[in-house]
Amino acid sequence: xxxxxxxxxxxxxxxxxxxxxxxxxxxxxxxxxxxxxxxxxxxxxxxxxxxxxxxxxxxxxxxxxxxxxxxxxxxxxxxxxxxxxxxxxxxxxxxxxxxxxxxxxxxxxxxxxxxxxxxxxxxxxxxxxxxxxxxxxxxxxxxxxxxxxxxxxxxxxxxxxxxxxxxxxxxxx
Length: 173
Known about the structure:
Blueprint: H1 2-9, E1 19-25, H2 26-31, H3 34-44, E2 50-57, H4 63-68, H5 81-86, E3 92-95, H6 98-116, E4 123-130, H7 145-148, H8 151-164
Parallel strand pairs: 1-2, 2-4, 3-4
């Protein structure tokens, strides 16, 4: 969510047109104010970019539950009324099937194409993905060579290498 703030509110990213997607889970949204922040940004900012927030609404607040394959009992979230309320806003979509998701992505793709042609203004859209535990999407990857040789990735490799020195299971370099 901090990167979202940079794209919307901090120069030079704020005034640079772009198309961004952010992926976030229930914990960051409900327990850390992610949806409140998204609504604030939708309401109070003129956007130079098209931004889509994909919210994985799986009823679990902890990312580690997604990594180990099941939630701890104390990590479960049961009340989805917030998303039901937000789902009535024009910039929010609730998708419960892959067909819902495909239709929403098709609609947003048309908006994005218009934005690229200068026929549509920037905006934030939120896609709440619910009951899609079996959904498997291949990652969208382009040419990562420029990213791999960037100063930022070099710094990250050096930093992770330093902290992993002597570890049995090192982060790949």
